[in-house]
Amino acid sequence: MRLVMVGTGPFGVPTFRRLLESRHAVPGLVTAPTERDGRSVPPSPLREIAAAHRIPIFDPPDINAEETRKTIASWDADLLVVCDYGQILSPQTLAAARLGGVNLHASLLPKYRGAAPIPWAIYHGEKTTGVSVIHMTPQVDAGPVIAQSEVDILPDETAVELEARLAEIGAWLMLRTIDNLEAGLLEALPQDPKAACRAPKLKKADGLVDWGRPAEAIRNQVRAMVPWPKTYTYWLRPGKPPLRLILESVQAVEQAVERSDAAAPPGTILEAGPQGILVAAGKGAVLIRGLQPAGKRLMSAEDFLRGYRLQPGDRLGTPETAE
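and the corresponding structure tokens:
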């Protein structure tokens, strides 16, 4: 078949490579432009791969413009393979390819529909996730499922690490799905809208720690919010401005509930020493092992304590909680 790749982000790189290595033809790549609102943006990694293979590149500001449909039609496309692109394709754009479009999504749909399925799955403490290939419809991530692959989320896996793993699994699944689609061996299963949940694009505020949450939930947040917005809190220093701290490495200490100081309010520093900074949470405690103060480098808790006078009884939270 003649497959047009539609993608921008790194999640689509393994899929694009698999398509190029397959027996199928890849007549073109549709990707994001290198300028947005008059400002340069980093080039898509898919653009570099296409250039290396002398694949024609089309980068419309609007995927649904008539010029896009004409370009896809000129490539005599059988199928649009969409992965990590960033725009919603209209029915008219999908119809520019003979068989429409298929999309690779990094969750077990209908769970975690949206732009950030991987971080939200980790944030919510999911033990498993996976990838789905769907027939594309005008509704985002709502098309019939034609293939899925489930994987365990490793206990200490970050969003960056899980994304890299799912991208490789997804590439394999996509190529197998395309072969089965060509052979007429696939059955599309409608999604159950009642089982759907959203995975919206991350905001900076999603990284702010609420110390009233359980320690394990805060640990999951640290794993989920990388590479952006990262997980952060503020050291509410008496007589000084709050200091923003990015949490890079933490451990949940559930047995802390048995301590004599278990009644300390969430966000209270319980211990501060070479092993880390122990902070009371809504349930249990969080041991901070690595952190990054605002404007400084990433450092161990031990190195941080050499330069800052943080002590048991101090508080972490938001500037508003100090009022």
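(Above: one complete record from the training split.) DSSP finds eight helices and 16 strands in the chain.
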